[in-house]
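Why does residue order matter? Because the sequence determines the fold. Keep that principle in mind as you read this record.
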Amino acid sequence: MKRSEKKDFVNDLKEDLLNSSSVIVTHYSGLTVNESESLRKEMRANGAKFKVTKNRLTKLAIADTQFKDISDLLSGPTALAYSTDPVAPAKVAVSFEKKFENFKIIGGGYNGEKIDKEKIDFLAKLPSLDELRGKLIGLISAPAQKLASIAIEPGAQIARLISGKSSNSQESN
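Structure:
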């Protein structure tokens, strides 16, 4: 990799990490090409990115970000999983670690803090931002739906009463 390519790589990674809310540091040694591609595909499907990086370049990229504390995790064959959704990379990484013994989660960063494997496992159990948004919209719209049905109900009762009286008077004739 040429010096200019390295500089571009560092700048691109830094920009990605500045826009991310969580990063997971993994060891990927021993994964086959198919397993690695499967992991990347699953990360993309969940809105996360997965990059195999050179540790020295990664340390340069994270120096001015909220993830500067994870630099000591960067040794050996490391790869980063990151996303704007704090839960997405954790969910994919934890599920992938269960499937493949050659894939290991080392640690990561979340909201400017260094986190360990246990906290990543906890993050993976949380609902994603989209799931939380859906639940919130459901909670907000439920009272409005109840209010609408309460407002409509008296008119509906009167209509049923008139309809019942009308059918009773027709039967008696």
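Residues 144 and 150 are 10 Å apart (CA to CA).
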